[in-house]
Design goal:
This protein has three helices and no strands. By secondary structure, it is mainly alpha-helical.
């Protein structure tokens, strides 16, 4: 994401403009650039926070998928050892269903 951002807040702050007899008022340009710097800084803070959140969510998603696989394997193993589908199988199926809703975002 940062390779698309051309200017940093410090580069904006340090930019010097040539003054012409018919040019802009330096004070107005400086005030406007100060606003841009604050916005840039806020954008960069937001982006870093969202990148961190994305990373955490991806890790959580990976853990939940591993838990689903583990529960499915346990369920398959239990079903293969006993033809009896008792309360434990129902509990496992409910847990798998809940985890799938969390991982895959299904609201059904």
């Amino acid at each position: 994401m940062e390779e698309k951002i051309v200017l940093s807040p410090s580069e904006i702050y340090e930019k010097e403009f040539k003054v012409d007899a018919r040019g802009y008022r330096p004070q107005e340009v400086d005030n406007y650039l100060d606003i841009i710097i604050r916005d840039y800084t806020e954008f960069m803070t937001i982006i870093r926070g969202q990148e961190k959140e994305i990373h955490e969510l991806m890790e959580n998603n990976t853990k939940l998928k591993a838990e689903i696989r583990k529960l499915r394997n346990a369920l398959d193993a239990q079903e293969s050892t006993s033809g009896n589908t008792g309360v434990n199988n129902i509990d496992l199926l409910r847990r798998i269903s809940q985890l799938e809703k969390i991982v895959f975002g299904k609201n059904e």
